[in-house]
Amino acid sequence: MKKAYYVLSLLALGMMNSCRTNDEVISENRKDPGVHDKIVNVTHHDGHPFSTGTSTTGKFVAGPGGGVLMQGFYWDVPDGGNWWNTVNSKLTDWSNAGIGAVWLPPASKAQNGAYSMGYDPTDYYDFGNYNQNGSVETRFGSRAELEALITKAHAENMQVYADIVINHNSGGQSEYNPYVGSNTWTNFSGVASGKFPRNYNDFYKNSYGNNDEGAFGGFPDLCHANPYVQDWLWGRDDSVGKYYKNVMKFDGWRFDYVKGFGAWVVNNWNSNVGGFSVGELWDSNVNVLESWANNANSSVFDFAAYYKMDEAFDNGNLNVLNDDMMWKRNPFKAVTFVANHDTDIIYNKMPAYAYILTHEGYPTIFYRDYEEWLNKERLNNLIWIHNNKATGTTSILYTDTDEYIARRNGYNGNPGLVVYINMSSSWQERWIQTNWASQQIKDFTGNSSWYPTTQGDKWVKIQCPPNSYSVWSLNQ
């Protein structure tokens, strides 16, 4: 049930204006623990947007609000070698919608050849151009088709991120391993590319130890402590990282399963190779996320925000959006998302996208949400709002169980915005404090037809439709 709020009479309006403080919303029910009506300045910095750097071509330029990332695949995309062409055909539309980067699945040949999603890598330099593991092409296509995709993305002012799987390998041949006293599938000396040949010395357990931070699925666990492995991953001129960047022209990296090895691995890769970097650290603990991001010198997926959004939008408690998240700790190292190829638990997705596309961090759009499941026009509207209006630091203005209002405070002449999310079954209205005095504002989603003018003290009443959202900024 909604809390009862009142609007002061016109006779008392002048008194109301003079008595309001900067951190209060007028409320009849201040002691209700389900209401959070104090303005909370969540982030504290100069207001500049999230930056992913420049592309390998030097063409990439983000909007005032920063960029938006498209995850350009989902689990078990159609096999048959046509996925690179499918993504290629969508790049122009994505770019026109304001999407600035695309994250691709692991591009190299894996154990299951034409049927693998790439997370069981065999030959890091086989992009669908060697007859290996039962096929020439990967599940996604040929090397030529991948290169055409990357070239097209750059022409469309988009960056391209490679999914990097360096915790484990698969598809090696059996060999006797003296460290375990039996045979292991660790003989990668015959990889077709001839690059980064490996044997049991390059996997745990070996002369460098019995294990590292984590192993996955029984696959041979790559030993990053071995200088030979380091050299092939990021050191030498034709290392995996430098080859992907300088030859294949990838602009950045999504590191898979970073719980499996030390943060120093990603840090060394980034120091030697460069480019944008984000780690998949599947953990809702913000302290764990922040520590890894700092030690890895990398962005990290904001799983803390992900689980809080599920609790908020699927379980009817928007107050949890006051809780700690990675984007609040460090918005410049937080990549936010609503779903991905591994996890898709948020059912009520549109308010979640309204949240990440109006808040700080680097928002990610999931391919199937955009192309198949949700309203593309509404997503494009939110992408436009993110790129053009979602600027500056963040202040939370009001929350209760089914309402949430936050303000982006603007940057470099851009006015910022106010986002209002309403999960109740009826229209709601609230007085809130903006950063704009005596100026007309409007809802850039079109969900409200109001064109209110802020008062001299910057207060204004806004509204939000049921089970939806509105986003307000100057009418200009």
From TrEMBL:
GO terms for biological process: carbohydrate metabolic process. The active site is at D256, E280. CDD domains: AmyAc_arch_bac_plant_AmyA (cd11314). Residues 67-408 form the Glycosyl hydrolase family 13 catalytic domain. Residues 1-21 form the signal peptide. Its EC number is 3.2.1.1. It is an enzyme of class 3 (hydrolase). InterPro entries: A-amylase_thermo, Alpha-amylase_C_pro, Alpha_amylase, GH, GH13_cat_dom, Glyco_hydro_b. Its cofactor is Ca(2+). GO terms for molecular function: alpha-amylase activity; calcium ion binding. Keywords: Calcium, Carbohydrate metabolism, Glycosidase, Hydrolase, Metal-binding, Signal. Ca(2+) binds at N167, D231, D237. Belongs to the glycosyl hydrolase 13 family. PANTHER family: ALPHA-AMYLASE. This is Alpha-amylase. It comes from Chryseobacterium endophyticum.
